[in-house]
Amino acid sequence: MEHFFSEKTTPLIELKAPVFNEKHLRVWVKRDDLNHPLIQGNKWHKLRLNLLQAQKHSASTLITFGGAYSNHIAATAAAAKEFGFKSLGLIRGDELAENKENWSPTLEQAALNGMQFEFLSRRDYRRRHEADFIHTYRQRYPDGYFIPEGGSNDLAIEGLQILAQQIDAQCPDWSRLYCSVGTGATLAGLIRHTAYRANKQLIGVCSIKQGDYLIHDIRRWIGDATKHNRWILDTEHHFGGYAKQPPELQQFMHSFQQEFSIELDPVYTAKTFKTFFEDIEQNRLPAGSQVILLHSGGLQGK
Ligand SMILES: *Cc1c(COP(=O)(O)O)cnc(C)c1O
To answer: Separation of 22 CA from ligand 1 center, angstroms?
Structure first.
């Protein structure tokens, strides 16, 4: 059980570039993508206490939701295998049930890790948060442990404390922390658990279109109202939406990798890191800022 709690600290790497000198910024990447090859980045922090809870309840099967390319599905399948659970993925898109040849690499790898699938119509998938809907699955799988889409629940928020503590210990004077947002749980966990100081601001960059509705969930997860003024949700930099990769984004991803030898993923981290560079161009970062870019993973074993 030790393993769930004793975490190695992932590196904080300083980036050097002329533009940072010009603007008097210091910039680091928190390489949380290096925490685990398959249960990667934020998905590991979000799953950890859920795995422990599942074990406490003697659950045999982890049951969760996701799309065909979901990093959370990949991570849950790998975690189930590593920690001795069965796993069931309730996957959006019933057309995939009969079309194994159209399965994404994510689903193929998850299947290799032992995950079983049920493919849901888009209409059923939309019901994934409804109590009635979950109830029918609970009856069918009485020894199942349910994890919501993206792994985002209260235990996930608690699980992010370790990451927040690492960041504060490695760079106590950070003033801006950029993090990618899907459900907002990672952002909320970091807001909740990083040290509170007036000059610190967290910037969540939302990968999905029209993400303003996430603010409600994020505020609920943060809880403590005194922390509500220290973050912003950037909903302008989704680059067309969740699965979209316009050429400008691909180009940025490529040149960032060339310059800094750090691979990004197109769904989350590339959008977040590009947003940071746009903020520099638009002089949104005061001279003297100490900026951390969270690399939250998303590379699925690459
Ligand atoms: C899932 C994921 C996110 C989104 O995390 P949320 O907690 O759902 O906001 C961000 N970055 C990467 C790499 C992810 O895989």
So the answer is: 32
